[in-house]
Automatic annotation (TrEMBL):
Keywords: Oxidoreductase. It holds the Pfam family Aldedh. Residues 32-489 form the Aldehyde dehydrogenase domain. Gene3D superfamilies: Aldehyde Dehydrogenase, Chain A, domain 1 (3.40.605.10), Aldehyde Dehydrogenase, Chain A, domain 2 (3.40.309.10). This is Aldehyde dehydrogenase (NAD+)/betaine-aldehyde dehydrogenase. PROSITE patterns: ALDEHYDE_DEHYDR_CYS, ALDEHYDE_DEHYDR_GLU.
Length: 495
């Protein structure tokens, strides 16, 4: 079926062909033993399927299978790992339509966004396929009496706790480097987006990934997610989600000294100086906050404007934002849905609280529905102007299509505002002054800075945060570090 047929069929029936049922353990979908939970289509606010809630025994079996498979996989020749990971990318592409439509229905994003996520998932497997046979150590010069070198060894079984905003690409950005490095995987997708990880596990198996190497267990974070974080067989835990759950996961992993990568979100600034083109700034800010309905850890949720261009930029931005037509992701809307009613209520609570403080809302500010059907969980694209640095709308992650605007006069002031939250994920600087762009980039306390563009970069670049945005890096060559441990070997040359 073409992607259009799949979409039409779903929109007409509310049902999506065959969905993976159970947990993917040791190379196959296993019947679930512990009850089910409804999965909702956010674009309609209606349940479309049920998924399985894993028992502790099922999670235990998945970790056991991964432990057994890791012992074998670390001995597989790097060239063979490379071949299999490239095949995964090919199989993902061949199934891109199915994956993307499933992702739209599970997450609420638009088909264009979901297709982009599936493509970048395939690219992540290609990228790390190319790394599998290049994980070299280095030779170290200790003088003529010794030969010394390092090797990079796989860490073993890795756990992956996946969020709901990028279910496919967050799965791929952890699983691909783990497999390239010789590790095995147990992944737990978010409660509201369980299906694509199961389908991806099936596709990995079809591509030749050995049984037990990648296991997917669905269920509640506080149950099986916590079990994964606590299990001493897990040697690296990769977590993406909220700061509160990240802290909890870190505490649970601490007694085993489990290695951790934490990707915990942000309140990332786009700074625009007086010499920037207001049209370009407005365009950058638009995509920075309204892509994926603002449900992005690295969303540009703060716009920090020089006072001289404030009026021009906000006029353009507010007008464009007010014309956005939200709708079900399969109907090619301008903006998709909010992932759950719980999350929609969190966004509304943030904005209602801002309204009660008397802030200036230039556009939006309330929940809405699919402009065609009147259904679904949506929030109006919202721009809040002229905020003070300590305003909660500046300090707290809202994780929705809500932009907080701050104003400045001097470069020092702009830097202080940009760094003035507890987060430090990414930042963007718009200016024609090269020297200033480099000074400000150097002053940003965050993991990534782009100049005169917001979403510059890709999976080839390391990505991750400072401060409460987390630690560790994913993507790029540095994304392999979490999955390897360095061993130094020294040989005495004495006769
Ligand atoms: P969350 O952090 O609770 O959930 C993320 C993942 O952690 C899910 O897979 C969940 O099942 C799992 N989890 C939950 N409790 C757990 C536990 N005790 N032990 C182990 N795993 C557990 O996030 P949420 O409640 O879905 O969203 C809350 C906020 O988190 C959002 O408003 C947003 O600000 C932030 N968030 C950030 C990202 C990101 O990309 N950094 C992604 C999703 C949510």
């Amino acid at each position: 079926m073409s992607v259009q047929d799949l979409a039409q069929d779903y929109l007409a029936t509310g049902k999506l062909g065959t969905l993976p049922d159970g947990h993917f353990i040791n190379g196959k979908l296993t019947a679930a033993s512990n009850g089910k939970m409804e999965s909702f289509d956010p674009g309609r606010a209606e349940a479309f399927a049920e998924f399985s809630l894993a028992s502790a025994e099922e999670m235990d079996a998945a970790i056991g299978a991964a432990e057994k498979a890791a012992a074998h996989w670390r001995r597989v020749a790097p060239g063979e790992r490379c071949r299999i990971l490239n095949e995964v990318a090919r199989v993902f592409r061949a199934n891109a339509d199915r994956l993307a439509v499933m992702e739209v229905i599970d997450s609420g994003k638009t088909l264009a966004e979901a297709t982009g996520d599936v493509n970048s998932s395939a690219r992540l497997f290609e990228y790390y396929a190319g790394a599998a046979d290049k994980l070299d150590g280095r030779s170290v010069n200790l003088g003529p009496d010794y030969t010394a070198f390092t090797v990079r060894e796989p860490v073993g079984v890795t756990g992956h706790i996946i969020p709901w905003n990028y279910p496919t690409s967050t799965f791929a950005r952890g699983v691909a480097p783990a497999l390239a490095a010789g590790c095995s995987v147990v992944a737990k997708p978010a409660e509201t987006t369980p299906f694509t990880a199961l389908l991806m596990a099936e596709l990995l198996s079809e591509a030749g990934v050995p049984d037990g190497l990648v296991n997917v267990v669905t269920g509640l974070g506080r149950d099986v997610g916590a079990q994964l974080a606590r299990d001493p067989r897990i040697k690296q835990l990769t977590f993406t989600g909220s700061v509160a759950t990240g802290v909890n996961v870190a505490q649970m992993a601490a007694p085993n000294i489990t290695r951790l990568t934490l990707e915990l979100g942000g309140k990332s600034p786009l700074i625009a100086f007086e010499d920037a083109d207001p049209e370009k700034v407005a365009d950058g800010a638009y995509w920075a906050i309204f892509s994926n309905s603002g449900q992005i850890c690295s969303a540009g949720s703060r716009l920090i404007l020089h006072k001289s261009i404030r009026g021009d930029v906000l006029d353009i931005l507010a007008e464009r934002a007010s014309k956005i037509k939200p709708g079900h992701g399969l109907r090619s809307p301008d903006m998709g849905a909010i992932n759950s009613d719980l999350h929609l209520s969190r966004i509304k609570a943030h904005v209602d609280a801002a309204k009660s403080r008397g802030v200036s809302i230039l556009t939006g500010g309330d929940v809405t529905t699919d402009c065609e059907t009147g259904k679904g969980w949506f929030f109006q694209p919202t721009v809040i102007a002229d905020l003070q640095p300590n305003d909660p709308a500046v300090q707290e992650e809202i994780f929705g299509p809500v932009l907080s605007v701050q104003n400045f006069e001097t470069e020092d002031e702009a830097i202080a505002l940009a760094n003035g939250t507890e987060f430090g994920l990414i930042a963007s600087v718009y200016t024609r002054d090269v020297g200033r762009s480099m000074r400000v980039a150097a002053a940003m306390d965050c993991g990534q800075v782009s100049i005169n563009d917001y979403w510059a970069g890709g999976l080839e670049l390391p990505f991750g945060g400072n401060k409460k945005s987390g630690y560790g890096r994913e993507k790029g060559w540095e994304g392999l570090d979490a999955y390897t441990k360095v061993k130094s070997i020294t040989v005495s040359n004495a006769s």
